[in-house]
Amino acid sequence: MAAAAVDVAPSDGVRAEGGRGAVGAGRGFALTLVITGFAGLLAAWVITLDKFHLLEDPDFSPACSINPVVSCGNIMESDQAGVFGFPNPMLGLVTYGMVIAIGMGLLAGARYRRWFWLGLQAGTLFGVGFCTWLQYQSLYEIGALCLWCCLAWVATIVMFWYTTLHNVRHGFLPAPEGVRRTFEEFHWLVPAVHIGIIGMLILTRWWDFWTS
């Protein structure tokens, strides 16, 4: 989805010399941030509402609790669902909203300096790292899946890899020329493989259930 929207050509026609100066982004990358931000925000919003319903009524069953494996309720009631002392999706309401704002700013022609792009890189790195931890907890500790969480995972992965591509392209992240060119040419491959690995782990984790 987002990969198809990405414009692989630099927005200003040149790389930032030595990673200096303010640069914008192509329309494709800006739209990718907006789309993935909205996807993550939607997931965080729905999970937050369901969490409130669950607090009001312990017998409440979220609509995405379909079977013993796809069970959002089990995820919401786990200790991992509030690892920072508050429900995890509340963090998503803020961070995904920030990503949407950045993407909209880029669509309007905003240009940012190296420190800003590296800040976005750090934020998306934290996001993909946190999602990886949640994936492990979901598959191997809690033993259940939340479909809205899966949507947030995919959105964060796409967001992270295309932010990385943008920063490598403009020299904000050092990379050999061959790696940079390969990354630009096959920009869709890395997030596709990343998401594919998660899909395979989900498939094999509950293989007996899926095939029964």
Automatic annotation (TrEMBL):
The reply to whether Cell wall biogenesis/degradation figures as a keyword in the UniProt entry is: no
Might you report a single GO cellular component term?
A: membrane
| Molecular function per GO | oxidoreductase activity; quinone binding
According to Swiss-Prot or TrEMBL, what is its membrane topology?
Multi-pass membrane protein
Domain Vitamin K epoxide reductase as annotated: residue spans: 26-167
Sorted alphabetically, which keywords does the UniProt record give? Disulfide bond, Membrane, Oxidoreductase, Quinone, Redox-active center, Transmembrane, Transmembrane helix
Can you tell me where the transmembrane regions are?
A: 29-48, 90-108, 115-136, 142-165, 186-207
- Report what the protein is called: Vitamin K epoxide reductase family protein
| The organism's taxonomic lineage, starting at the top | Bacteria, Bacillati, Actinomycetota, Actinomycetes, Kitasatosporales
